[in-house]
Hints:
alpha/beta; Phosphorylase Kinase, domain 1; Rossmann fold; Dimethylsulfoxide Reductase, domain 2; seven-stranded mixed β-sheet; six-stranded mixed barrel; 25 helices; 28 strands; binds iron/sulfur cluster
Amino acid sequence: TKGVVMAETKSTCCYCGVGCGVVIEHEAGRIIGVKGDPDHPANFGRLCTKGATLHLSAAPDTLIARALHPELRSSRDEGRQRVSWDTALDTAADKFAAIIAEHGPDAVAIYGAGQLLTEDYYVFNKLMKGLIGSNNLDTNSRLCMSSAVAGYKLSLGADAPPCSYADIAHTKALFITGSNTAFAHPIAFRRVEDARKANPDIQLVVIDPRRTDTAEAADLHLALLPGTDIALYNAMLHVMLWEGWINRDYVDAHTEGFDALKKTVREYTPAMAATICGLDRKHIEQAAQIFATSPATMSMYCQGLNQFSFGTHNNSALINLHLATGQIGKPGAGPFSLTGQPNAMGGREVGGLSNLLSAHRDMANAEHRAEVAALWGVDSVPEKPGKSAVELFKALQTGEIKAVWIACTNPAQSMPDQALIHEALKTAEFVIVQEAFGHTETCAYADLLLPASTWGEKDGTVTNSERAITRVRAAVSAPGEARHDWAIVVDFARRLGTRLGKGELAARMFPYSAPEEVWNEHRESTRGRDLDITGLSYTMLETVGPQQWPFPEGASQGKVRLYEDGIFPTPSGRARFVVTEHRITAESPSARYPLHLNTGRLRDQWHGMSRTGLVARLYSHEPEPMLHMHKDDMERRQLANGDLVKVKSKRGDVVLKVVESATLRAGQSFLPMHWGGNTMGGQGVNVLLPSDFDPYSKQPELKHAAVQVEKY
Ligand code: SF4
């Protein structure tokens, strides 16, 4: 347009935890392009297919998918009607206040997302734990990273990934386990490829039941049976002990609990583990040798460890190997959990889970609770942990929780045991859904729909997998009446405060008029903590670029690597060996449900597809969900490529096409996790998965189910 100048705004990709920097190109209030930010240390200008098409997910024709105005329905028999923001938030505050007055603060809940910005997370957390007085705030990070959090805390004393992406260039042996990094974290995988090109001696070991693109690139691929990681790692430790590959000096100086673990792993001979894992014992011995004898061994892992009902111990069993060999706290070494979502880390930093408190404080610690209460200017914060994701929806279904506020996530697609979740949302007295996209499965249950701004429209910060905080910036205004998540919470909090007789307190607690004010308060809450960021500011993040925590006042740079001094944030200062035993998955194959079902990501789709599903180009890689099966299993059922099959578990079934896959061994099947009921004409894939969860992390077993498959 004549006279209109194209502008560029630096921001961050809103998909995975690599946290790539992007440059948004926009003109006349419209996003018209996106390119990689050459100055951003996570990607140096590169983008994967998802990031490179972000602008298409914000194109004018996607407006049809957006929630544009607040909508309310007065009864479940009616459709929602457009209302003003005042009516919407007054109604929400009335409902919450009435339920709290009659049933207490634990009768309401908030369910958020690792896609929220740190500032959004902070105000939601403060609202629930500070003003309302309940810990019933959980997020979809529970489905994604909570076993990594619990594993780090159990083994190392704090939820702090010790490595950086830069370590990939320094490693000599890289173990990628439970992660198809080439698809799920593509730009991190480009770094692996670069490192191997520069140093062909780097050994890549991939541990995954499927021969994924990542596994294809490996020097050694261990295609273990799903959920048998602990047996494998224990056997590797057994071999290391037998061969004298343990780093005694490191174990003696910096760890505790090794003797108890030694006793346990004595039982895990390579032969025994080979049977449990379905592996060749020689490969187990080879993996142990590579791990222990390389000058620098690093592991990168994701949902294949986390999403099991023993996910925490999966993490700890792997960390045991790093501690036993001293492969931690030095360049190119350490256990590096890859964050699935763009800001699961930021959410953890502000305490955005039902068992966490601000700045890595411990809910069970009275001093920590008092510190948070003092920071927020309230008498106390509740001691009793709130409901985790699965517990929260179960409590909605039984009526223990009456009202839920769901923000920036789609549990009616993404939670396991979908029948339970849909029943819970139907049973709930009042459901608020705060969303940028109005077409999600969860929006169908909203009594009140609050339109939210999204990528390209909002301001704040996120933290990626390597503890680097990056600015997220608005390039254009939000469409319609959509508002920023943090601002909606602030407006609601003041209205709720008045109704609860805490009007003055709410005004004092939520004085913010810009996200920077929220972030500055969060920053102050980290003073003296392991993630201290008091040396940072929005201005610095904008002028100097992303920075890794800790970055305390007076520091000149953040920490690339943690625990280089061998001192860990445990009471003794020593890292802890955790005794881990092999456990069986929540469901084992049986005569009725004879196949293992694995779930995972595709290269070009993201989560429940509310954004990537809008971009036609992203369907060219995989146009529809297909069940991947081994040819023997297909032959036995007289199935041909493209046949429709019914996949059935104990909880439900889905109908979709089948395709033969050489990536699987016989007895295994695979389904991509992205498709929900709206795009599959009824039930989404998560109807099949169990809601059994890990006792420490409460993360459900979304990776595995036992299923039967028959021609439809
Ligand atoms: Fe976005 Fe992740 Fe792709 Fe980077 S690797 S462009 S953060 S989806």
